[in-house]
Amino acid sequence: MAQDYVDDTSLFLSNVINAAEGRIRTRLSSHGIDDSVIDDVCADLADLKEPFAEFDTEHKQLEYLKKEGYYIPLVDYNVAPDM
Question: Residue by residue, what is the 3-state secondary structure of 17-47?
Answer without folding.
Answer: HHHHHHHHHHHHHHCCCCHHHHHHHHHHHHH
